[in-house]
Amino acid sequence: QVLLVESGGGLVQPGGSLNLSCAASGFTMGDYAMGWFRHAPGKQREGVSCISKNDGSTYYSESVKGRFTISRDNAKNTVYLQMNSLKPEDTAVYYCAASRRLVFSTDREADYWGQGTQVTVSS
Fold first, then answer.
1. Which of 109, 117, 114 is CA-nearest to residue 50?
2. Is the pLDDT of residue 13 over 90?
């Protein structure tokens, strides 16, 4: 059974940091590109970041570039998203996803999804 389980979300003040984790099981994570998406109320789900399955190349949306860092540890079957300098507009449910593609950035390119973790940025 394939599972992606996110953790690390919560409430943080503007300018603060959070580190999201996604534990994968039921498949060989090293064979998949891994990504983070987010879904804010009233908006479409958007791709935030992706890390490739071969050389670890990373990609970020313009809205988070320079503030967020994605990484992966294939030995631990875990992917991370370090989020710094958080803004209220970063408030959303954050989802971990896996894709057989080399890299991916859209919903339809994902093969597996986690259940999501809430991130709220507010004073």
1. 109
2. yes
**SS3 (DSSP) at 107:** helix
Q: Which two tokens stand for residue 1?
A: 């059974």
Here the tokens at position 100 are: 């057989």
CA distance 81 to 84: 10
Residue with the two structure tokens 């259940």:
115
Contact of 99 with 32, CB cutoff 8 Å: yes
Phi-psi region of 15 (alpha: psi -120 to 50; beta: other; left: phi over 0): left
- For residue range 32-68, what is the model confidence (pLDDT) as tens digits? 999 999 999 999 999 999 999 988 899 999 999 999 9
Mean pLDDT value across residues 58-86: 97
Cα dihedral sign, 22-23-26-28: positive
DSSP assignment, residue 103? S
Task: Determine the distance from the C-alpha atom of residue 119 to the mean position of all C-alpha atoms in its chain, rounded to a whole number.
Answer: 12
C-alpha separations of 27 from 35, 108, 111 in Å: 15, 19, 11
In this structure, are residues 108 and 99 in contact, taking their beta carbons and an 8 Å threshold? Answer: no
